[in-house]
Automatic annotation (TrEMBL):
InterPro entries named among the record's database cross-references: 6-hairpin_glycosidase_sf (IPR008928), 6hp_glycosidase-like_sf (IPR012341), GH15-like (IPR011613), Trehalase-like_N (IPR045582)
Source taxonomy: Bacteria, Pseudomonadati, Pseudomonadota, Alphaproteobacteria, Acetobacterales
Gene3D superfamilies (alphabetical): 1.50.10.10
Alphabetically ordered keywords of this record: Hydrolase
Record carries keyword Hydrolase: yes
Official protein name in the record: Glycosyl hydrolase
Pfam families: Glyco_hydro_15 (PF00723), TREH_N (PF19291)
Top-level division of the source organism's lineage: Bacteria
A GO biological process held by the record: carbohydrate metabolic process
Domain Trehalase-like N-terminal: 23-139
GO MF annotation: an example: hydrolase activity, hydrolyzing O-glycosyl compounds
Residues of the GH15-like domain: 240-596
Amino acid sequence: MSHSLPALADALTPEGPLDGFWPIEDYAALGDGRSVALIAPDGSVDWCCVPNLDSPPMFDRLLHRAGGFFQIRPVAPFTATRQYREDSNVLETLIETEHGSARITESLNSTFAGRLPWTEFARRIEGISGRITFLVRFRLGTRCGTVAPWIQSTENGDVHHIGSVLAHLVHTPNMRILRQLDEAIEAEIIVGDKTHALVALVATQDEPLAVPTPEQIDERIETSDRAWRNWAQSLSYDGPYAGHVKRSALALKLLLYASSGAIAAAATTSLPERLRDGKNWDYRFAWIRDAAYVANAFVRLGAIAEVKAALAWLVHHLGEQGPLVMYGLSGDKVEDETFYEDVDGYRGIHPVVTGNRAAGQHQHGIYGDIFETAALFVSRGNLLDQKTAQLLAGLADLCADHWRQKDAGIWELMEDRHYTMSKVSCWQALDRACQMAERGHLARDRVPRWTREKERILDYIDKECWSEKHQAYSFYAGSDELDASIALAVPFGIDRKERMLSTLDAVRKQLGRGPFIYRYTGMQQEEGAFLACSCWVVEALALLGRKDEAETMFAAFLEALPKNTGTIAEMIDPDTGMYLGNTPQGLSHLGIVHAACALAGDRMKAFDLP
């Protein structure tokens, strides 16, 4: 993706074209298995939480005009063309000015053995032709207004303190400091033909900080690249849209918290779902739903180590804390929302929030999500331990006991209802529990009860959740409203082909806008189209035999996405093509994986292998 930008003199605090903020779709993402950084086209790291993805941000200009950032950009006007290296999450940017050209290579470094015990953000500048002067600007954030950064001079260099975070800039000798304050540094780097420079941030929290040499950091860029490529090339997918599938898999891998095996829903908080106040959420936690769907995508791609880690993490915390909707990435309970009133918000849109009010809800969908992941895991030749098997059997009993109760539903709404998709998920859970028991993975003694209950659930769905008006399964029992997530009933295994095809037609007619789909009735006026919904509909159409129609819709969907580096957010405004919501969004990326797999003829039900 190419951008033309003004000279630095025209904008000492470089601003994107939208109220001082870059469009969400213009950000590229880097990660190291612990945190994720977002980089704007002007070379500014506007979001990065240290040490972990769900820590307070070190760089927070994504949400605050006066926030922290770490920028490298030419002084002269320039164009920037960015792309990830093939099969990698290492980013390369070609810089071109009237005076010459250069390449910037960026990585949140790791090793072949996994993440480093510190955050290491490496930025290499290589001159290609001519001569370019770069300005390096490093401004510490206040962690959303909660701390005051300061600098400490030592015999081993300057140390930056941001609350409990310790940070240090490592650089080659050809970086010249122009100005240095407690909260900011400005420096200059001049590169010519075949000149090489490196600037890196190393940071940790409440720990001593090891300081590598520039040469060690520079070498680790290539080590990280090889590690990414080795992982991406090990994926077992050779169907259509392979490039999109691999890029989405790499984005999903960014959201896997290597320290525990948890999978975050997204890398950011408070990016708005609409361009006015009110619908901003913190997604830097592990929802059972999102973690299960991502794990299922990894199963499809043969990434069994990640699936095992995610399943083990889920089971451990389910046994420790019970079936919650979400957990912190380290397994702790997610707190209710805390608001930062003095932080601007993206484009001035409030609230800026940490925590999530849905943490205290109950959603029946967690039962289906857990059992689908476990069933797919064992159906690929893997084994459960007895503790996990007993825990799953207990969850199946809970599901059988509670499916008749109202819940908050897949969309985490404030009013509990008999949501159709929640009943589908309960059916899915008991169906997979029965299959696993019949194959010896769970005790068989409760199969008769589970079987009877899943049949009652299906009967309830058919009788109570069908809209004669729309000839479609409804959003909730007794309603004529529609819900796009019902498309998931097809890959989940609900055998109602004609009714499901009719439902998909109604969803596309009532909730569709071109290739994009809104979540449920009434959301057209409230928020953007939910990108994963389009993929769910594509997957369902393909599995039900309308493959040509699914192909056409999926091709149109991919063509209509912004032409960026491949990082996809939660929602899109169909009228403007602008992304909305948090990014990168796991559900969006895994939707692409599932849709492509369905088009490749992979039905991917548990126990469907010979």
